[in-house]
Design goal:
This protein is mainly α and 136 residues long. It has one domain: Cytochrome Bc1 Complex, Chain D, domain 2 (Orthogonal Bundle), CATH 1.10.760. A two-stranded antiparallel ribbon has the order 1-2. Helix 1 packs across helix 5. The longest helix has 62 residues. The structure holds heme C. The site of heme C (HEC) has 23 residues, from helix 2, helix 4 and helix 5.
Length: 136
C-alpha cells in the first residue's frame, strides 16, 4: 500500500512536471506566435490607413466630379470653397460624410452613381481625419 502510493506520487510528480513545462512552452509559443502576427500585421494596417487617406484626399481635391474642394473649405486639402459648410468648423464624423456622399444633401449632389463604396469610404475617412473629427 505504502509502495503503491509512493509510486502514485512519483507519477503524479512526473505528470505535473511534464504538464507544467509543456504548458509553459506552449504559452511561450503562443505568445511568440501572437507577437509575430502583430509585428507583421500592424504595418499592414498602417499602410492601408495611409493608402485610404491618400485616396480620400485625391478624390476630395480633384478626382471626384464635381470635386468637394470646389464647394468646401478644408485646410488640409488647401481648399477654399464657400458654397457648402467649412469642414474644419463642421468637423463631421465619417458616418455623417458618408451619408452626405451617398444621398446628397441640399445643393450637394449624391456621389453614389460615380464613386464606389470604397472610394466614398476613403473620402469619409479623410474628411473626418483632416477636419479633426476622427482621433488620429
Ligand atoms: C456643388 C457644391 C458641393 C460639392 C461639389 C460638394 N458639396 Fe458637400 N455640401 C454642399 C452644401 C451646399 C452642403 C450643405 C447642404 C445643406 O445642409 O443643405 C454640403 C454639405 C456637406 C456636408 C455636411 C453634411 C451634413 O450632414 O450636414 C459634408 C460632410 C459634405 N458636404 C462633404 C462633401 C464632400 C466630401 C464632397 C465631395 C465628395 C462634397 N461635400 C461635395 C455643397 C457641395
Amino acid at each position: 500500500m505504502i509502495q503503491h502510493s509512493t509510486t502514485c506520487l512519483r507519477w503524479q510528480n512526473r505528470i505535473n512536471t511534464k504538464f507544467s513545462t509543456r504548458s509553459d512552452e506552449y504559452n511561450s509559443r503562443i505568445k511568440a506566435l501572437f507577437t509575430t502576427l502583430l509585428v507583421f500585421t500592424m504595418p499592414a494596417w498602417a499602410a492601408n490607413d495611409i493608402a485610404q487617406i491618400t485616396l480620400g484626399k485625391a478624390l476630395f481635391s480633384k478626382a471626384a466630379v464635381p470635386a468637394c474642394a470646389i464647394c468646401h473649405t478644408l485646410k488640409d486639402a488647401g481648399s477654399v470653397g464657400t458654397i457648402g459648410p467649412a469642414l474644419d468648423e463642421l468637423r463631421p464624423e465619417s458616418a455623417r460624410v458618408l451619408q452626405a456622399l451617398r444621398n446628397g444633401i441640399g445643393q450637394m449632389p449624391a456621389y453614389s452613381g460615380q464613386l464606389s463604396d470604397q472610394e466614398m469610404a476613403a473620402i469619409a475617412a479623410y474628411v473626418a481625419k483632416a477636419s479633426g473629427a476622427a482621433k488620429p
